């Protein structure tokens, strides 16, 4: 429990008290809580968060950096995570025992993470065991997954990866065992394996709704990597035609995309990398350069605003924003913080101890690779 909070109030303040408050009022309330709680509060913010929220984050980053920051936090007693549910769970697993983690809106999930659950991954593992020796398979979960799936990887000698270390993680996996089962993002898995030289014939996609994932026994026997049939609903919106249109209209433009995009989009792009890589690349680019960026809209808009000496375009003509990240807005942040400060905390994200230890094993293997 948070020891800085007074144990007076019994009922949390209702969200309704915050819903219609003006931005100025909410900002003032957030600032007051931050000042009052001082170093006992750490606000972490993912790059996809809206400006109105991310400006209050003590630290910003991509998924890898944010998990490293949670693991390294020494002063705080509470982490308020401006991101999505799997990120808050990861912070709960990696932070010190005394730290409580909160997510301002518990409905801020990740549709990709929802595409793989423990039952279907266990069923896939059992099906694979009928065809190949699973002692020769490393399960690798993208960090965009539930803590239960990270725990599954922990128990099976597997590991977690993020979009910025997927190659390093798969190198580790292939050095130990011949094959990998990669979930839930087929695109990150395929793009990374292909960049490492795994031929397409040695990759197979696993559809959890079909027998043997929709594969023949031969295809499974041949595969070095089995890719779960999951995807990001935001990044699937970018198409190779968008890249072609920009190249035609703006000769010399550089195209930079996230590895959750399809292989065809990654092939058409100049550069691929995590949100932190995207941010650093644009920051370091020469003045006057022009970019089309294929990742979440809020980050791209911020990059355009913060780099006025360069031209930054959004790669798609459609609005592709992460609607769940967007749920963390100023009213929810103020509501969560004020309740925390008055001793009526809301929206704590708590990974059960039995899950935590195995999930930590898989996460720690990843962090050790850094
Ligand atoms: P990053 O690790 O690049 O921040 O990606 C997280 C994510 O959910 C991208 O869609
Ligand atoms: Fe999940 Fe995609 Fe949103 Fe990232 S952008 S949190 S992968 S739905």
Structural class: alpha/beta
Q: Considering DSSP H and I runs of 4 or more, what fraction of the residues is helical? A: 40-55%
Low confidence ranges: none
- Hetero compounds: 1,3-dihydroxyacetonephosphate, iron/sulfur cluster
Q: pLDDT average, as an integer?
A: 96
Strand-and-helix sequence, N→C? Answer: HHEHEHEHEHEHEHEHEHEHEHEHEHEHH
Number of strands: 13
Residue share in β-strands: 5-15%
Instruction: Specify the number of helices.
Output: 16
How far is it from the N-terminal to the C-terminal residue, by CA?
31 Å
| Anisotropy-based shape | globular
Major beta sheet, specifics? 5 strands, parallel
- Order the strands across the largest sheet as they lie in space: 6-5-7-9-8
* Radius of gyration using CA atoms only: 21 Å
Summarize the structure.
By secondary structure, this protein is an alpha/beta fold.
Walk me through the structure:
By secondary structure, this protein is of the alpha/beta class. 43% of the residues lie in helices and 15% in strands. It has 16 helices and 13 strands. The chain has helices at 16-19, 23-37, 51-54, 63-72, 85-94, 118-131, 147-155, 166-176, 186-195, 217-222, 240-249, 263-268, 275-284, 297-306, 330-341, 353-369; strands at 41-46, 59-61, 78-82, 100-102, 137-142, 159-161, 179-183, 203-206, 225-228, 254-257, 271-272, 290-294, 311-314. It has a 5-stranded parallel sheet with strand order 6-5-7-9-8, sandwiched between helices. Strand 10, helix 12 and strand 11 (271-272) form a beta-alpha-beta unit. Helix 4 packs parallel to helix 5 (85-94), helix 5 (85-94) crosses helix 16 (353-369) and helix 7 (147-155) packs across helix 16. The longest helix is centred in the C-terminal third of the chain and has 17 residues, at 353-369. It starts with 15 loop residues before the first helix and ends with a helix. The model has no long low-confidence stretch (mean pLDDT 96). Bound molecules: 1,3-dihydroxyacetonephosphate and iron/sulfur cluster (SF4). 1,3-dihydroxyacetonephosphate is lined by residues 47, 62-63, 144, 162-163, 232, 260, 274-275. Residues 84, 110-112, 144, 232-234, 260, 296, 322, 324-325 line the site of iron/sulfur cluster (SF4).
